[in-house]
Every structure is written in structure tokens, then in C-alpha cells.
Amino acid sequence: MPAVSKVVGGFVFTGEGFAPADVCINDAAIAEAAGEGQVVDAAGCYVIPGLVDLHFHGAAGADISDGSLEGLHAMGAYEASRGVTAICPATMTLSEEILTAALTSAAAYVPAGNEADLVGVNLEGPFISPDKVGAQNPEYVRLATVEEFRRLQQAAGGLVKLIDLAPEEEGALEFIEQLSGEVRISLAHNCTDYDTAAKAFELGARHLTHLYNAMPGMHHRKPGPIPAAAERTDVTAEIIADGIHIHPSMVRLAFNLFGDDRMILISDTLRAVGLGNGVYDLGGQDVTVDGYVATIENGALAGSVSDLMRCLYVAVTQMGIPLVSAVKAASANPARALGIADAYGSLNPGHVANVVLLDKETLELKQVILRGQAL
User: Fold this and answer.
1) What is the pLDDT of residues 157-198, one digit of tens each?
2) Which of 45, 70, 72, 47 has the alpha carbon at shortest distance from 58?
3) Of the residues 260, 268, 290, 307, which is catalytic?
């Protein structure tokens, strides 16, 4: 793959807008001055940072929960080809043995030249509510314990950056209090009320998993966890903007509630993404994919088959989210939530040279530059 020294003639994402500018690259990093390599013409394109997906399960036939290093490489190659250059795949509600194998493989992953960086792991299960399992496997739902988390974190070599739990379950608030300084904790798959959610945030939880899905809705007398999160300035909320999970008006409402500095676009994709219709496995359950809809046997939605780049496209073209807000929510904001904003999610000098070109008229993906190399 050819090295790139400069991207010229495009409209470059500044963090708060777009401006005509050139992007210099030197030794796989954004730089003040260009190094050696080819010049990429970005005329007619938006130039944005590589996207960061902090919640997806798989792609290209693979899933992190398989515990397969080969599968992780397939996922990394697919994601990079779609402009998602930093990934934090999510495990499912499974046994500790299966989770340990998955995390051990993740710790061993070293990306090839055409593969996204694996910047963390998201433990979506198993510490969730048995009454809000969604597409998770209820057989493996269990209470959160500090001891199990630390065993899993050790297997991951410290890669677990995000962990989900239901705060109303026994021991969950104590778990948050003890571990909020070690890992970002998210409220997920829960039946919690406003007061319990507010207490969880007070103790250090800082995130909401797939907003609106697998949690109580907002009600004027029973507000639930969403207003408890929105009232704080230090809590982020992720959302699946695939056009299937959430009505466009509710996506717009979320951006209005939280602001575009705290909203995070995620894909929540399954192994089926990129493969077409069929029946696929998710955490030991069959998932049927028809177009962009994926469901388990009882008809419940089971994640997405729209990768993060498509979610960004849908958010802008079908949901009325401004492009600047959508780019922030798919790059800078997830990078900040994962604690990697010093290297990812921006086109500032010193950051990894992950650069994506989108056609200005259609938002079609035109070019991906991964760690300074043109794919």
C-alpha cells in the first residue's frame, strides 16, 4: 500500500466544522509538514478522521466472542475498508470460560497493514438484567462481581475499556463504586428507575448503552435512566442510527437532549455485516438477516447489519443530523469515551493518520488512509 504524504484540496473536518485545507502526514501521523509519499487529491470531498466504533460484535462472518484471532483479523480488515479505523468490539452474555478465550485472542491481535487498530474491548454482558436480555443469552446472565471483572481484565491484558451492567441488580452499585476509576461503566439491558440510575452516575457510571433499546422509556411520572443521564455533563450516550432500531425523530431528540459532544454513534453490527441475507449465530442464538433487519426467533431485534459508516450516512441523509455532529459522534466522542483521544478521532497533528474521504454530494466513501497508507 502506498504511503501518503499529503491530502490536498478537500474540505477538512476541524472538530466544529469544515474548512478548505490540506492534511499533512509524516511517519503514519498527522503532521505540521508532509513527509515522503504520494499526494492524494481530495477535490470535491469532505476529509474526516477515521471512525471509531466502540460497540459492534462482528463483521465479515466473524464475531469477537468466537475467540478466533483469524476472525478478529477478518473483522479488522472489513472495518478498515469501510473507514472504521479504530475498533472496540463487544462481547456477549456468555460463560467466563468463553469470555476469557475471546479476551485472550483480543489481547494477541496485531493489525496487518489493511486492518483497523483494536483499541479496546466492550463487555456488553454478562452483568445485565434477566428481564431485559434482548438478544443476549439468558442462560449466562449473572450478578456483577469485582473478582470476575478483574480476571477478565487480566485475560484481556487491560484492553477492557467499557463494561455494561444493570444498576438495579444486587451488588451493581457497589461494583460501580469500586471499579469506576478502572474502567468506563455503562448502564445497559436494565429495568432501572430514575433514582437508581442517578445514584449509579453519582458513583461513577458514565455511559448509556444503545440509547432507548433494552431500557425503560421516558415517562413523565417514571422518567427512568435517560433523563438521569441527560442531566449530567459527564455521561455519554450511544445510539444505533441504522434506520431500523430507532425512529429518526427519537435520534434527533437524543442529540438535542445530550448535545453533539456527548452523543456517540455505534453500529452494534453482527457477523453478518457484509455477507447478505441468511441465518447467523449470535452468542449461541440464531439470527435471521433480511436486508438491514436482523431478528432472533422471538422476533426481537438482534443488533445491526449496518456498519458505522452506513450509520453515519443514515443519520445525516435520513434523520436530519448535521454532518458535523454525526462526524463528532462517530470519531472524536467515542475516542474520548475510550480514553484514546490523544491518538484517535481527530485530524490534529500528532494523531494517527487515519483519514477518510467522503464525496461532498453523496457522502459516498471515496478513500481510506490507514496509518498513513492508502488502502
Assistant:
1) 999 999 999 999 999 999 999 999 999 999 999 999 999 999
2) 72
3) 268
How many angstroms separate the CA atoms of 169 and 125, rounded? 13
Is residue 53 annotated as part of the catalytic site, yes or no? no
For residue 2, is the peptide bond before it cis, meaning its omega torsion is within 30 degrees of 0? no
The answer to whether 27 and 309 are in contact (CB under 8 A) is no
Please report the pLDDT score of residue 275 as a whole number.
81
Question: Judging by beta carbons within 10 Å of its beta carbon (0-12, 13-18, 19+), is residue 93 exposed, middle or buried?
Answer: buried
User: For residues 250, 253, 254 and 255, what is the CA-based torsion angle, rounded to 10 degrees?
Assistant: 130
Local structure of 262: helix, strand or coil: coil
Give residue 302's pLDDT band: very low, low, confident or very high (50, 70, 90): confident
Phi, psi of 98 (to 5 degrees): -65, -40
Residue 293 C-beta-side C-alpha neighbours within 13 Å: 8
- 187 three-class SS: strand
User: What is the dihedral sign for C-alpha 294, 251, 210, 60?
Assistant: positive
Q: Which of 16, 18, 20, 34 is nearest to 353 (CA)?
A: 34
pLDDT grade for 279, boundaries at 50, 70 and 90: confident
Q: Which uninterrupted H or E stretch holds 331?
A: none
DSSP conformation letters of 72-122: HHHHHHHHHHTTEEEE--EE-S--HHHHHHHHHHHHH----TTS-EE--EE
d(CA 49, CA 44): 17
Chain-wide mean pLDDT for the chain?
95
Strand partners, 369: 355, 374
Rounded to an integer, the average pLDDT of 78-91 is: 98
| Residue 300: pLDDT over 80 | no
Closest CA to 238 of 215, 259, 264, 262: 264
In which element (H, E) is residue 160 found?
Answer: strand 160-165
CA–CA gap between residue 29 and residue 151 (Å, rounded): 35
Phi, psi (5° rounding) for residue 293? -110, 130
pLDDT at 283: 66
- Alpha-carbon distance 75 to 115, whole Å? 8
